[in-house]
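Entry 14. Structure prediction run on the chain below.
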Amino acid sequence: MASIIIAVSVQTSAETVWNALSNVGEAHRVFTGVLSDCRLEADDMRIATFTNGLVARERIISIDAAHGRIAYTVLSGGFEHHGASMQVVPGDNGTCRFVWTRDVLPNAAAERIRPLMDTGVAALKRTFEPG
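Output returned:
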């Protein structure tokens, strides 16, 4: 199984990032420029539409406020397995770390997922960092 882990510092408080990220039906507001829309279909199901036209159906596994962590799985896209989590970890001086992990099968799927994650992390930083 291929694992992709991206961890970046964000120059905004963990509380600010978590408040937006935990609103799982509004992910397009966090990942502006990458997602054009995101909506809840049910309490644990969301549809994420990417700006490139890709549509992903995702099941929300958990929203853990105590640990600032969201876990989800992608149900579309022909994956044998696609589990993911996003975590916001408080840092010093009003900053935080954003950690995004994805485990996928087949392994080759990581080659197409990593660029989307890199673009997503850049979008998240643009959303929350001043300037």
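Residues 6 and 118 are 8 Å apart (CA to CA).
Filed with the rest of this week's runs.
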